[in-house]
Amino acid sequence: RQIRRREREAMRPRDVIVAGLRRVIRHHVAASTALYLLGVLAAALYPALARRTFIDENAFLVAQTTVGFDRRDARDALEHYRAAIDAARSSPGDVHRSDALRGWLEDELDALGMERYRQAFALDRHSWTRGDDDWGRRSDASIDNATHGVNVHAVARAARGNGREGIVLATPIGAPGATLEADAAALALGLVVMRTIAAAPWLAKDVAWLVADARWGPGDHGIAATDAWLREYHAPGSSARGAGHRARRSGGGIVPASYRRGIVPSPSSHEPFGRVGALQQAYVVELPEGAVADVASINVVGFNGALPNQDLVNVPVQLAKLAGFPRAGIFADSSTAGTGDGGGDSFDALGAVVGGAPFAADLRRVAGFALALARGTPAGSHASFKSYAVDAVTARMSGERAPAGVPTGGAHRRGDPVRGVVGEDAFLRLGTFAESLVRCSNNLLETLHHSMFYYVMVDDDRFLSIAEYVAPQGLMLASSLVTAIALAVIGTSSAREETSTSTSTGGYARVSLGEKRRGKEERGKAATAPAHDWSSALALALLAHVAGWCALLVASTWPASTAAQLAAAYAGALATAAAALATWSKSADDGNEVDDGEVDGRVGRARREPPWATLKVVALSVQVASLGALTFFNFALAVAVAAPLAPLQLAAHGGVGGAMPPWARAALTLIAAPVLLVAMSCAALGTDASTALGDAAAAHVAWGRRVHVLPLAWCVAWPGLVLAACVHLGGVHLGGVHLGGVH
Question: DSSP states of 475-521 as a string?
Fold first, then answer.
């Protein structure tokens, strides 16, 4: 004993680490369970790890500059607001309201002598049209048969700039549910702000004001129109190839009467398109309730959880407060914004145990923000800019009773009573805010590279960086990795040895010291690496993932059919299970051992591992690799998949013991587990479970297959469940032969 103690004391740190890792591998079941539970606990303690937000880029010069937008400009904006409403109401009956507003806007821009362009972009098959006569002037059939949308943008050139960098201010109009007053307020605000910016002596970067046609495309924020504008901006003539768009410039000249009447020409690749250099930042301002300015809700969620630099979140919040908004931030529209639609009781119960009601509220906001990221659908047209590596946010201005759920997106709602600042005072706040945004970006000398690009908001002034929020995901994946390494390196031999020493009553037989030493010597003599049939396991894993891809293909081809998706998914699962049974039954007669030979320099009898153990190693490895990579693209979605999938795969085994037979375990994994997961997801999202798959497929197609949720479900999560079921099938007997080998 003293000799062993001296040996341990003489061990180098490296030897200590190696010995510790070996001990963890040897007791991998307990280690994996502890790691997973530790990851769940760490996720529950997220609010305790939150830090205060801060503006890392000093060049923004927040609160250190003067604003030129004054009350006179606010009165001008109010007059333009009324004039735009009158122009839309007096337009011919066959002209759509937003077309009439665009015609009025072009006349006003020409009167100011500003550089402006018109773009007619083609509607592709992913764009759906809006035929709601509640907001349109044309008939439903006329809207539904339209083939082109229309964007207008104006440019303010910087007299002192070199034209290499630019800023974008966007105000979408025509969104479903948006009123005439809302669109008119957006145009009036943008018109006066651009006039003020164009005359500002501090302007060093060109500024583009985009009026996107929000009538088309999925979502309610003009994303399809913004996509078309950005495609043309970065790839001139792209619409000539069918992508969608065309432009026209006017510098104060005569505008054809057909344009003023709102008649859209067919796309042409010969029209000019004004640019402002490399786009640095973009700010989207939405006024769903018109000229109202009490709450500034900041939307940051982009496609697949993409986020802008955090400075571009904190700066608008601070500028809105300086402009006089009583509330501003990501969660500003209500006390429960972004919390999701379910799980409130669970958060309250956890908060009562851990830290009370404030802790529960923080945890609810974290879950809501993470849920918005996991969905992958954008909450504003800023997401289009982020797809081109341009940091952007959407500021949605509203009254005290604004629609809830800022981070999760959602349609504009009308009919809610609005109180607070309206009219001229509202335009003063809005104009001050918009000009301040442009001026802060105008001060920057380089692209944003400070602050955070990976974060989770806990509150409007607190956040979790990647250093804090990645730990739970790492622990969950580590639990799977430990088991995969253990099964690959030492196999299932340790479990069999422990089983062989147990008595029939469940206890362990007393073993003498001499027997222990002899057993240790024998095990050392035969200590060879376990033999795995990797080719068969890899082939089964490939088959499961190909079957999942086929289910995704069916979902993308027939998105409205939930039955077709389920049929394709379970057909692939049955094919994989049948292939596993056929492969394992063919090799079952080979026995559990291979011939004597030299392995790693030692002579011994190598043990052939049961095929289910090898398949489990492959399944766990694929899970760790795929979800580990996804963590750095959409952390929230990776956690949402890893949390239920990891324990299901870890619990899979091909043993014959237990209260439930292998067939029942496999069926439970393939049927009950997916049903439970879908039900939980629908409860969190507030959707109907019976149509969940069809809705997800329809959204996947509508967003141009840019959202990762459905591919991840069918190509990662579902194959993982199928492989877990196949592992369970390793314990069945066919023709008196145990497919999983001796266990």
Answer: HHHHHHHHHHHHHHHTTTHHHHHHHHTB-TTSSB----HHHHHHHHH
In the prediction, which pLDDT does 351 show? 58
496/590 Cα distance (integer angstroms): 19
Q: Name the residue type at position 109.
A: L
Residue 526: which residues within 8 A CB-CB, separation 6 or more? 604, 605
Give the pLDDT band of residue 405 (cuts 50, 70, 90).
Answer: very low
d(CA 201, CA 159): 8
Cα dihedral sign, 722-635-689-177: negative
Q: Which residue has the higher pLDDT, 402 or 28?
A: 28
Residues whose CB falls within 8 Å of the CB of residue 445, separated by 6 or more in sequence, listed in order: 59
User: How confident is the model over 147-158, as pLDDT tens digits?
Assistant: 678 899 999 999
Residue 675's Cβ-count burial label (10 Å; 0-12, 13-18, 19+) is exposed
Q: Which amino acid is at 360?
A: A
- Of 366-380, 406-420, 503-517, the range with the highest mean pLDDT is 366-380
The residue among 429, 432, 423, 430 whose CA lies nearest residue 79 is 423
Rounded Cα distance, 357 and 345, in Å: 11
Higher pLDDT, 366 or 656: 366
Look up residue 173 and give its two tokens. Answer: 């109009």
Q: Cα(370)–Cα(611) distance, rounded to whole angstroms?
A: 38
11-35 pLDDT per residue, tens:
666 666 767 777 888 888 999 999 9
Among residues 407, 310, 363, 335, the alpha carbon closest in space to that of 46 is found at 363
Neighbours of 295 (CB within 10 A): 25
